[in-house]
Amino acid sequence: MKTNLNRKLILILYLGMILILPFFSIVNFNSNYLINETNKENSLDKNLKTAGYWNLTGFPIFIDDADPNYNWSKTAKNNDWCSGSGTWGDPYIIENVTIDGEMVGSCITIQNSSVYFIIKNCTVTTSGFISFDAGISLDNVNNSLIINNSFSHNYFAGILLRENCVNNTIQDNIWQDDEYYCILLYQNCYNNKILKNKMIESGGYAVYFFENINNNIIADNFMRRIGWYTASGQAVGFGNDCNGNVLTNNIIIDIFDGIYLNQYCDNNIISNNFISNNYESFGIALGWYCNNNTIFNNTISEIGLSSFMDGIGIYMVNDCDNNNISKNTIIENDYYSIYLGAGSGNNTISENICGNDITSNQEIGIYLVNSDDNTITGNVFQNNTWRGLDIDANTDDCLIYRNFFINSGIKHARDLGTNNNWNSSTIGNFWDNYTGVDDDQDGIGDTAHSFGNIIDYLPIWDDDAPNINIKEPSMNQFFGSNTPSFIVEITDVYLERMWYSVKILEFTIEISFTENRTIDKTLWNSLGEGTHTISFHASDDFHHITTKNVTIIKDTINPSVNILFPLNGQTYNSTAPIFIVDISDNNLDKMWYTLNTDMKKYFFTNNDTIQDWSDIPIGPVVITFFANDSAGNVYSEFAIIIKYMTSPVSTDPTIIIMSVAFSTALAGAGIAVIYLLRTNKSLKRRFES
What we know:
The protein is mainly beta. It has 4 helices and 59 strands.
């Protein structure tokens, strides 16, 4: 009898556990789910393959893809430092290699290759003394990328493209103390790119094109202290027959000479380069018979520290025709801004967009020597210690108009030639010492300006600065993360330049513009929260400058929204609930809420009662509270409450479910206990009888 009783007790306890189990399952479901998901993430394989590093000093790399004993395929198969298959999507890669050439031969030689390959993250040093020895030597090679490598003490060249090298890119490499050439393209190389490299303290040339080097790009490079060891050489040098090349956005400082095109170099573009503090002769020079080149928008300053013919910003040596020199800033050079040598004709030194700024040169702005049929227009000659423009006795038939002569030392100009015209059919030049008048106010002096052999029949008259009208943005306008646009109206007959400036800490950032657009995005992102002043500037060819300011407010911070009442899960009957929200922002504009998916906005200024509650159906109600500020930043938070026709006891659906489960479990346990008690009494009566 006792055994049966125990079995019944065990059965009753088991039934009670079954009834209680759902309660604990509900409570633990979320936490168990999160733990399982976290374990899945932690089980991911995080092993990463890292490349090795190889020191191959004493074992230079030699690849000849025309020789089966030394081709790419065999090299990649036999060496851990080479991988890939030579396709565009899977190029051969040589990386993380260090080679000291020990002053013998080239460190890496690749020839007769047209597959795709990359040389990266390598250190190459001390290649040989003999001509065509190099840190990396390419011969008859196409489709390479040489990137992020370091070169030093290579005695002939850091990188050599010897002959017939096409579609190669040399990018983001560093040269330090290479002895003669950092990069040499020798013969018949075209469509190559030399980009974003740093070349420091080379004895001869940063980049040199020897012969028949065409349609290449040299851009965004930094070159410093080039040619100092040998007191010769240039940052960039072209030899003979180098045509159609582009040199742009390079920084060239502390060098012996700048950019030099030697002979028969045509149709090249030299633009947007910064060239400063050259020790010897010139910033940019065209040698002999260099025609149809464009020299545009370069800044050239502080050229020349020594003897005669030194210190020339832009120099044409002999017989250079049909070249266009425009929009360059050429300042503070020792002798001349622009020098046209013998036989250089039909060149245009012109404004095109804004003209040249030829200021503060030690002697002469532009000097023409035996150079006929040139056009000089739109240039500013200012603060030259001798003359702004000087024309020698063998220079004839030039046209000089719409130039501006300001504060020259001895004379603004001298003309010893024949039949040179100092005005066009409609306009002459501005002379700051013109003593005439403009009674009819047409912008042209009523009488000619003449001195020496010079007669300007239509001298420019102007005494007005540019006018600026800021239409957008408005004063104290708010802006968020989106970059603000501007609309300004600037008028001046001789407008030269427009720009805006913004101060960041103690620095003033200036950005030029030619049309209305948005503020520079990088600049805008650099500005902190709060008030900023944007200054718009305009200058004319007379160096009159006008500035107008507008103050704007940057606010990229969202308002804060904190719902204090109602709380998630609270229940309400037909009586509309009140709401209490805490919303803050320094530039708060509007506050509103929406109900469920209805897009209707209920604007409010104070905590209040939910509107249109009677129209909301029974069930869950999503109340979303919004706030925006004057800069357009918007933020929201929401609460979910339950609407019933009569108030229920519970407020949270989860608690209701848990309570029902728990109550069911307790009820089951109670039934079991009653049953047990009754059974025990019956058993007891039977036992006693």
